[in-house]
Each structure stands twice: as structure tokens, then as C-alpha cells.
Amino acid sequence: MKNNEQVEIVTYNPKYKKDFKDLNIEWISNYFVVEPNDVKALDHAEDYIINKGGEIFAAVLNEEVLGVCALIKSEGKDYDYELAKMAVNPKAQGKGVGLLLAESAIKWAKEKGASKIYLESNTKLKPAIKLYEKLGFKEVTGLSSAYDRVDIQMILMLNS
């Protein structure tokens, strides 16, 4: 990735469905175990995310997807969207792709009138936690998770 090359953040396009799944399976397998809920969300992204009012973002450079993330619309009252399934190609890590994806997702959520964005992570993922803190996410407790690997939950309050 050269400095003058522009990474473009795009919203969901079915042609990036395989990248969405592959990048996520790659990072999850690298650190954790792929769980049934991962497979459900990744294999049925349209049903699970898009059709329920969420969005999937892809960071694209020269037609190559360098990273992905999703905003899953919440059905509960605790938050409006969950920032989820963020994955960046190992060769693009540390180059600001995750930040671009997260900022685009946050902007999108604000435009939809969201006031709170939630996320789940693991403290083993230090660069990710630092990124979330930089974006203003604060640790919260008391919400249940569908994933075994989750040991930290965070919320970002948006000033609408």
C-alpha cells in the first residue's frame, strides 16, 4: 500500500461477500475458535445483517478488499448498532484500514440517528482495543454475549 493510493470504504456489495467471510474466518482462526454464531453471520450476511437494517463495509484498494466490518442493527434497547466482524488483511494491518472502516461505520450509524454503538472484543487483541478507545468506546459490563471469546464489551455514545 503506497501513501498516494486511496483506500475506498464502500457499503455492501454481494461481490465482497466471500472477502467478508474469508477475512473474518482468517483472523478468528488465528486467535480463537470459529463459533457457530460466526458461521451464521458470515454465511448469511444479507439475512443476518443487511436485511435487518445493518450494513457491511469494505476497504477496497485497486479492487482488492483489505478489510471489512459490519454494523448489526440491535433488536434490544441497550444500543442501536453493534460494530462487529471487523477484519483486516494481515498485509494491511497497522496501516489505518481498521480506523477508516470504524470511522465510516460510526458516520453511517450517526446518519441513521443512532445514539449508541456497542462492540465485543477480547483483551488479547491489544491493537483493536487501542483503536476502539481512540474512537471513544468505553468499557461496559452486564450485557450477555453469544461468543465464548468475548472478555470485553464497549459502548460508544454518539452525540446526535
UniProtKB/TrEMBL annotation:
Q: Which Pfam families match?
A: Acetyltransf_1 (PF00583)
Give the protein's recorded name: N-acetyltransferase domain-containing protein
What residue stretches are annotated with the N-acetyltransferase domain? 7-159
Record the organism. Answer: Flavobacterium ginsengisoli
InterPro entries attached here? Acyl_CoA_acyltransferase (IPR016181), GNAT_dom (IPR000182), NAT_camello-type (IPR050769)
List keywords of the entry alphabetically. Transferase
Its domain of life?
A: Bacteria
